[in-house]
Amino acid sequence: MNPPKVIPITNFFNLVLGRNTGVSFGLLGGTPPWLLMVCGLAIAVALVVWMSRAESQLTTIGLGLIIGGAMGNVLDRLLLGGVTDFLDFYIGQWHWPSSNMADVGIVCGAAILLLESSQSGKKAEPSQP
User: Fold this and answer.
1) pLDDT digits (tens, 9 = 90+) for 92-117
2) Residue 98 located in a structural domain
3) How many CB atoms lie within 10 A of CB 7?
4) pLDDT at 2
5) Given 40, 70, 85, 88, which residue is catalytic?
6) Residues near 80 by Cβ (< 8 Å), separated by ≥ 6?
7) Which residues span the domain enclosing 38?
8) Residue 85 falls in the annotated catalytic set
9) Is there a domain that residue 60 lies in?
10) pTM for this one?
11) Would 117 be classed as within a structural domain?
12) Does 76 qualify as catalytic in the annotation?
């Protein structure tokens, strides 16, 4: 039995089944999975060091989401040879590349870090008398 290729959910979201053997947007698709896993682990270690030095709980949360997403993708590569993508968001005929929940964690964590960094710049400005 063949599963359906696309399961429509709403007028902007489908469930799909895809395997990404590269990184974001399928870049580096010919790279061996072990090399991508090593890169993912190295990045996660660097982020753990950053997190251990973080002074803000928001930074810690953002970094934790990114690390969790990276580890989820590393596990997929280890077990399956690539990342299983299944979330397909679109507007009209324009589809964002499919993704998975690990990618959602990475994007949300990056957004938290960006938001916090834009807010911390405002706090550092001297107040006017």
Assistant:
1) 999 988 999 999 999 999 999 999 99
2) yes
3) 13
4) 66
5) 85
6) 19
7) 32-123
8) yes
9) yes
10) 0.82
11) yes
12) no
